[in-house]
User: What shape does this take?
Amino acid sequence: MAALFANLGIAIAKFVGYAFTSSSSMLAEAIHSVADTSNQALLLLGNRRAEMDATPDHPFGFGRERYFWSFIVALVLFTLGGLFAIYEGWHKLGEESHEVSNVQWAIAILVLGIILEGYSFRTAAKQSLPLKGEATWWQFIRHSRTPELPVVLLEDLGALIGLVLALLGISTAAITGDSRWDAYGTIAIGVLLVVIATVLVFEMKSLLIGESAVAPMRKTIVEAIVGAENVDAVLHMRTEHIGPDELLVAAKVQLTPGLDTAGVAAAINRAEQRVREAISIECVIYLEPDVFDPQHPGLAKG
Assistant: This one.
């Protein structure tokens, strides 16, 4: 929400600035802010749709809606933000000259944009810290199973750098009297957005296809299962996120020999309960009793 309202206010201010300055950098930044505003609305839509109840056709619910709309956000940023800016800058370079007027308007609006984007970026960073833990920011972006925060972080970072590039382009054009610097700034903004969008496209594609729980969580799950009474070992396990806050866990487990049917059921139920207590997100768990096959170490018999 912070990003949505910040980008909406910035977009309006930048269009006003473009009307007064005719700066291609300002126009590129205005379109960039429109794209960012639309992106926040799409992320909110994904959050809302992800809360829908499961149906017979979608028995695991709609958690991956958040991944889908985050993927669309990356495409919007690539096309409406990056490619448009590159085109606009290239188009201005092809012209003999284009005057950048009322530079003071542009500078004032870009400084305002830096303040608002800085607030949005600070908010996203603060929200990310509990999930980031000891990881670096790049590791958090690469391995986070919550799509919205990496998207907003990279968007806001790109917006802040883009605003600085626009400020440099417009200021240099005004000082030197060479309007090509404004076009260079526009192209630089476009390249920056294309790079950020490409990173997001690959990350969101990976989440859409399906990613496992992170390694520390997988270790916690195995320890929780093995720690249950009458569970001797986890023979084989698969995990997959069916949403940022939902995990599918499927495993073959070796139980203490000699248990009757009631004992098997009780052991499985205790193991499932321990998993739910050990990790903080919702789980759909399927545990199957099996026995170790020495001919295929690491795999369950059958």
Summary: The mean pLDDT is 84. The domain at 215-289 is CATH 3.30.70.1350 (Alpha-Beta Plaits).
